[in-house]
Amino acid sequence: MKKLKVEHTLQGREIALYGNGGKCKTLVIGVFHGDEPQGKFLIEKYLEKNPESPIYFLPCLNPDGMENKTRTNSSGVDLNRNFPADNWHYSAKDEFFGGESPASEVETRFVIDILEEHKPELILTLHAPFKVVNYDGDAKEISKKISKIINYPVEENIGYPTPGSFGTYAGIEKKIPTITLELDETCPVEDLISPVHKIFDMLS
User: Fold this and answer.
1) What DSSP letter does each residue of 32-62 carry, written as one string?
2) Contact predicate 124/26, CB 8 Å
3) What is the pLDDT along the chain (204 residues), one digit of tens a residue?
4) How far is residue 26's CA from residue 103's CA, in Å, rounded to a whole number?
5) DSSP code, position 69
6) Alpha-carbon Rg of the chain, whole angstroms?
7) What is the spatial distance between Cα 59 and Cα 72, in angstroms, rounded to a whole number?
8) Fold (CATH) for 2-203
9) Dmax over Cα atoms in the chain, in whole Å?
């Protein structure tokens, strides 16, 4: 699988988009939040056995947060509150801090550039810990198929406000069907390999 696009975080760690090109326009993103590392592991395990996959993969969006074991990036910003959605607003500087301004973070701008350059038609992001298939935009039917594989319920509303979220920006405003797969953090990540890889296969 080719490294198609590379950026570096404030602390110098690499963020990379991988892909082989072709007709598939699915993008999978792992580790928006550094304390939710399951996505990187599951994506890398999949690519070991499926290097010719037509899916675009961004295994780890927030390597600084993952290294520091924090939800936020190294600037203290929650990347999933930093997108320039209409509902972004300045918020308290806690673990949900949306940044000094929309798209203030290099990681956020990297994703925005990917959307503009590669124009995905479906996006799957891997999060934890709620055990739900959440979606934004026209993704209800594909979410139901994912639900059958992983046995999590489908939820259109995650249950709390998410100003500046990627789902709002990409799924609602950019009209790219966007699915947030919230994985069970109490489950050993090795036990998630089979269902998650079946989902990747289905999206290929």
Assistant:
1) SSTT-THHHHHHHHHHHH-TT--SEEE--S-
2) yes
3) 999 999 999 999 999 999 998 788 999 999 999 999 999 999 999 999 999 999 999 999 999 999 999 999 999 999 999 999 999 999 999 999 999 999 999 999 999 999 999 999 999 999 999 999 999 999 999 999 999 999 999 998 776 778 999 999 999 999 999 999 999 999 999 999 999 999 999 999
4) 23
5) T
6) 15
7) 17
8) Aminopeptidase (3.40.630)
9) 44
Contact 28, 126 (CB under 8 A): yes
Residue 110 CA to residue 6 CA, distance in Å, equals 8
CA dihedral 133, 94, 162, 179 (to 10 degrees): -30
How far is the C-alpha of 57 from the C-alpha of 47, rounded, in Å?
9
Which residue blocks in the chain are alpha helix, DSSP H? 38-49, 63-68, 106-118, 140-150, 166, 189-203
Return the half-sphere exposure (C-beta side, CA atoms, 13 A cut-off) of residue 177: 12
Residue type, 166: F
Phi-psi region of 151 (alpha: psi -120 to 50; beta: other; left: phi over 0): left
Written as six digits, the tokens of 147 are 């639900």
154's tokens: 């489908």
CA 139/CA 126 separation, integer angstroms = 15
